[in-house]
Structures are given as C-alpha cells and as structure tokens.
Amino acid sequence: MHRHSYKGRKFGRETDQRLALVRSLECALIENQSITTTLARAKEIRRSTEKLVTMAKKGGLSNRRLVIARLNSVSCGNLLVDVVAPQIKRDSGYLKIERAGFRKGDNAEMGTISFVDEIDYSKAEKKAKAEKKPAEKKAAKPAKKPAAKKPAAKKEDK
C-alpha cells in the first residue's frame, strides 16, 4: 500500500466526527486566540484555519458566507471576519505552534497553537453591547392595555 494523494490526518475517527472535531477546535482558537491540544491536531487545524483567515481578510459577502459555512457557527464566523482578520497585518503565516511537553495520561505530545499577532477582542464586546441597546429600546415601549375580563360564573358541584 502506498500513501500517495491522501491528505490530512484521520485521528482514528470517521469523517463526520473528524470534521466536527476540526471545526470545534477552529472555533475555540478564534474565540480564545490560543489553545493547547495534541501536536497532530494543532498541525492539522493550522492548515484549514490559515485558509479561513485568508478568506476573511479578503472580505465581501461571499467570503463571509463561506467562512460561516466552514465553521458551522455564525457568531464564530462573524468574529473572524469583523474582529480578528482586520487586526492581522501579514499576508500569510498567521498561526504559530509551540511544543508544550507531553500529556500526563498517555504521553501524547502537546502543542499550543496561537495567532502570531495580538488580537484585541474588546472591539467585539463593544459591538455586542451596541447591538443589545436597540433591542432594549424596543422593549421599553408601553404596551397596550389589556381588555377587561368578565368575571367567570362559578359552577356548583353535586
């Protein structure tokens, strides 16, 4: 058997489980700026996450929709396009992997994957607060008075 033309790692999982694992790790990386996982997983998510960041940097509605579709999370995709991508000043090589020793239980080699540039997430918090304010104003409008209820007739039990 040869291993030509087989891309990616299998992680001992079926396709749908593997895709879910990679997508959840990508979302965790985008939301937290840095995660610690096994070295093989870190190397695998670096491939796909750098492609997502490049798409997000290009901007546009179609690229935003592609990013959201690949991440399976609207909030994570919007965070990448609106907050993370504009703060990255380089053309490629957005992520770095540092070895983080070995896991205690099974001695698996661990790695920390993070963005090379520092990302300021306070912009996302300000934007979230600004979106909540109009919703609160709508709720502050006085409601119409309910119609008066007629008293219900009491039934006698025999």
Q: Any chance you could write out the topology, listing elements then pairs?
A:
Blueprint: H1 15-32, E1 34-38, H2 39-58, H3 61-71, H4 74-87, E2 95-102, E3 109-115, H5 122-139
Antiparallel strand pairs: 1-3, 2-3
Helix pairs in contact: 1-2, 2-3, 2-4, 3-4
Descriptive report:
Helices cover about 50% and strands about 15% of the residues. It is an alpha+beta fold. A hairpin with a 6-residue loop joins strand 2 and strand 3 (about 110-115). Helix 1 packs across helix 2 (about 40-60).
What are the key terms here?
51% helix, 158 residues, elongated, single chain, alpha+beta, 5 helices
Question: What can be said about this structure in brief?
Answer:
The chain has helices at 15-32, 39-58, 61-71, 74-87, 122-139, and strands at 34-38, 95-102, 109-115. With 158 residues, the protein is α+β, with helices and mostly antiparallel strands.
